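To whoever is on call:

I kicked off a structure prediction for a single chain this morning and the downstream step that reads the tokens threw a length-mismatch warning. I double-checked the sequence; it's 448 residues and nothing unusual in it as far as I can see. Pasting both halves so you can look.
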Amino acid sequence: MNRIQRIVALIFTCSFLTVCGQAEEFVIRDFEKKQLTTVYWSEGASYGDFNKDGHMDVVSGPHMWMGPEFEHRYEYYPPVAPTKRLPYDRGFYSNDNFFSFVYDINGDGWPDVLTVGLPNTPAYWYRNPGMSFSGPPPERPEHWERFFVTNAVKNEAPTFGDITGDGVPELLMAYSKHYGYVSPNPVAPTLPWIFHPISTHDDVIHHYTHGMGFGDVDGDGRADFLEGNGWLQQPASLEGNPEWTFHRYPFIDRSGSEMWDSLKGGGDMYAYDVNGDGLNDVITSIDAHGWGLSWFEQIRNGDEISFQEHVIMSKQEENTDNPYGVQFSQLHAVELVDIDGDGLKDIVTGKTYRAHDFADEGARQDPVIYYFRLTRKDGQVEYIPHQIDDQAGIGRQLVSGDLNGDGLPDVVVGNKNGAFVFIQKVRNVSREEWEKDQPVRSESFADR
């Protein structure tokens, strides 16, 4: 469905000529969808100015689409199909590309691409040769040189970020029996990267385990490692690869004895101060192949840290928790970004399209994408849902960023439906039009 899905937000502004609270500006936020390809190449997508022409480009699988129009496609490594059938068969997986991360890995001023494939397969990075292409692609693709990173990335929610605080991002993942991260080889980033284990607790880390992230939980200025069973506290010094202190807390339910039950968990996890009390809380989806989205309020008792769960979407098919009637499954990726510019980070997520083909709970519902706008009032927190789209869905990776330089965050998606960009647009409307487009809160939740 190639239509603009309307998303609304209210912004109050005050001018020098009016009294604050009297001047109201009613704003509707639209997300304009552009489908880059209908072919399944990857479970994710990202963006960067690869040819340094001042316009952001999108990368998904073996291709890049050049901004600002995203009309021209560039092949930067040879496409590989998971089966003998091309294009990709949506009943299978793009083994070589689940995630794309963009960063200038070798420090030459040109953004490179780090790729991670199906869990328990290798990661590589591709060196940008100084890309000159901006118009129609060359007749013969100029493939980028590939370098080995690591041989097996465990967990279905690896991420790329600076957990060590040294200014250089690391690939957060699990390897063998440990959580940890791989960082570029200090001799040269073209050499195999180095894995730094941080955990030795006894939980089995299967390569299809779900849920991972990082952020400063305890407020000591150092980023901690988040996973479904709890969080690992970063020590004061990382010299010698010390073990990080594990604090057990069940952010998700992995209590089942069956293998698939024991692998339950969400997608990306975040430490963020949701309620503004100065303590970072935890945000996560509950089951990437089932139901549930929650934030966990941090509770302090002296030096002891615990959490209280606040459900945003129910952990079963029946909606018993969302007052706006929003309920969907398969939240395999979660992004945290300030969509409306109010200084509070909102949750962007959606339904993964054919994650296990159509075998997951709720899999045949519309493949939606939503953002949940964080609001605070009288000490209470509420996440108000706004639909971005109801046909594209998400994959294993969901990325936001300003693609067109207008200061507004946009969204990029890669999945079995293809690859998409959603460009945010803002327009002023009348109060009547704004009220008509507001999400409706059920009266049965009035006392909650």
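Update from on-call: the warning came from a stale cache, not from the record. Cleared it. Sanity check on the structure: The longest helix spans residues 431-436.
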